[in-house]
Amino acid sequence: MTKVGRPEKSRLLKRLIRERELWFWSSLSMVWWVIFFFITLYGIVYAFFDYVPGRELGWERFVGLKHFTAFFQGRDAGIIIRNTLVIGGLNTTVGFAAPIVLALLFDELRSSKLKRVAQTISYLPFFVSWVVVASILTAILSSEGVLNEVLVSLGILEKPILFLQEGKYFWGMITLVNIWKNVGYSTILYMSAIAGIDQELYEAGAVDGLGRWGMVKHITFPNILPTIVLLFILGIGNILNIGYEQHLLIGQPTTREYWDIIDTYVYRYGVQMGRHSFAIAVGLMKSVIGLTLVFITNLISKKTMDMSIF
Known about the structure:
Elements: H1 2-18, H2 20-38, H3 66-73, H4 77-108, H5 112-123, H6 130-141, H7 146-153, H8 170-195, H9 199-207, H10 212-237, H11 245-250, H12 256-259, H13 262-272, H14 276-305
């Protein structure tokens, strides 16, 4: 046992030394996750108590599911859930398909230099702050913005359209902005999956007379389908996790009925109003629903397509 164990430990030690940079940066990521995710999980207990900052949390403050039922009994619950599901659904369907289409289009570019330039340009919006994006959007879509000025000057419109002040435009607008900001960065995994396809398959397809569309339909798409299914299952879990910065920055008081979602609701009650236990309860409810959706989607995918993540 000792003689066998020593060579294994020696090989493991040599591998750790050889891959020390990889392990170093990975350890930093794991430490970040432990500090900001796993340790903070203790905070979910506050969802079942009437927590008051500065006071000891004892069993006399235990209220069970009071905060959960209070959310559903509130007058805003229906609007909050509707907006979250609609915007999350648009992001998970239209927003999910956009990077797949873009990755396929990038793959069709024959010039490697043009492909690199196009990919770099598509990545840039991801690194732009939502504050900057909101400012750009206001400059373009406000009543006195560039778009309205152009449309009015060309005689297409008689008076400016209030894109930012009318709620009926918000869902489509926020979906397009989310796609514009994230589509390029989201293509990375799909481009990696496409790059891993055996080139002999394309050569065989060319011999069989497949055109470009045939290559995509019969070779490229089937080979990246496992990646698509995996990301879709994970994306379903985030259908309720659609951020709050863009909604607070782009949304107006007159359009609140269309942009107020669970995340902005939690921010308002937890940070601005100080109802910490109530906000934690709503956030916990959202996480449980997201996890449940992941399990359901994974099960459906496993039964229908024989593909799953667990």
